[in-house]
Amino acid sequence: MRRRWIAAVLAGTMALSLLTGCGAGQTAKSEVVKLDPNNPVSLTIWHYYNGAQQAAFDQLVQEFNASVGKEKGIYVEGYSQGSVSDLEKAVSDSVAEKVGAQSLPDVFSTYADTAYAVQQQGKLADLNQYFTADELAEYVDAYIQEGHFYDDEALYLFPVAKSTEVMMLNATDWKTFADDTGSSTEELKTVEGIAEVAQRYYEWTDGLTPDVPDDGKAFYGRDSISNYFIIGMKQMGVDIFDVTDGSVTIHPEKELIRRLWENYYVPYVKGYFTSMGKFRSDDVKTGEIIAYTGSTSSAMYFPDEVVLDTGSKPIDYQVLPAPVMEGGEYYNVQQGAGMAVTKSDAVHEYAACEFLKWFTASENNLRFVCESAYFPVRKDANTVEALDKIVKDQEMNISSKTYDCLTSILNDFDSIKFYTTKCFSNGYAARKLLDYNLSDQAVADKAAIDEAVAAGTPRAEAVVPYVTEEAFDTWYEDFCQALEGAAFS
Known about the structure:
Blueprint: H1 2-20, H2 28-32, E1 41-47, H3 51-66, H4 68-72, E2 74-80, H5 84-95, E3 107-110, H6 112-120, H7 133-136, H8 141-145, E4 158-159, E5 165-170, H9 171-181, H10 191-207, E6 220-222, H11 225-235, E7 241-244, E8 247-250, H12 254-262, H13 265-269, H14 280-285, E9 291-295, E10 305-308, E11 311-314, E12 317-321, E13 332-333, E14 338-341, H15 346-359, H16 362-370, H17 384-393, H18 400-410, E15 418-419, H19 427-454, H20 459-463, H21 469-488
Parallel strand pairs: 1-2, 1-3, 6-9, 13-15
Antiparallel strand pairs: 3-14, 4-14, 5-9, 5-12, 7-8, 10-11
Helix pairs in contact: 3-16, 11-19, 16-17, 19-21
């Protein structure tokens, strides 16, 4: 009798753990959920893909519905919400239950800050319930870690495609400049080296028209200033946002921030850097700059020609590594939206995870990233060999810019350290502050300097008040106060 009683208790305990537990292996819901192919569950996915990315995504969705989805009883419908900001607004309106807003979809593309805010409202499913530890181990560790918002095992954001930063160079105009000045792309490996080359380029272009003073051209631009701050600080050994279990401590170390100021703001107001269009690839197209640091996904938008008032000319390109702070540790930014699953019921959550598993399987994921210049998320897919195989087997027409950009990272993928900040309540606002505080100041001060030059003041003289110790101290104090306000408001 005693043995039968113990066996019954153990059996009951095991059954209870299957229904409620979350362990290292497959958990309850994914084991007990049963789908009916004759009565398929419908899933709605919101995303921000457009153009070739949307076409690639839609094609994969159709293939899923006709194969695995049909077999298991899952039907997926994807809807583009427009831009990333349009999607974020649609999601936030749904969470806030605003009048006229649609209900949250079953799955939606999202960056970590938005997903964190939705999760704080209790509206995201914990995906660990539907993946085994072995399954998650097949994905790049840093990508999975980004989806853990707290110091626990819960997984709220799943990686589907990632990107990082590279430097894109107008190789045609660079060659003319380099041949005349002896400049080398080796100098472009550091942030400080770029500033030095940019000054040389400004002076060289100014010298091409000796009868017109102070008309040198900018050399360089940067797409994301928040990445410049976050990665630059990390390369110098500091997390500007130090987050533990959702609680943030800010570390705007003055001497390190000064280095960032000296290597972006100072060359900007002197005319060595600029930002004119919406993206820096736009500025390359109009001949405003010949180099920029931006997302790998921007490679597909790098122009084939420069369009000037006097006509257009074809240009070639070169993909270079994103620069590092001199003497710093090499880190690459980790970015790109993942997908979150709305908290609903076991059937819909399980079905959503089955689609995510299929979509991120190596072959399917590689097909998608070839059209988007993003990177696949599984470890076995992040190799040049895997990329070449899918391009050959599927007879894919991948653009040379996308291919060169992807392989520039994949060749060294295992040795690259990827970094992104952890989520905290006002993370989005704090990042936006980094994006615009220094850059807006640089744009405004450069305009004031240009106005003084137009009135007859030599540029070297007009710049002086903006690059002093006092000028930095004033900006720095305002910056720290604004950053505190954004992070803790």
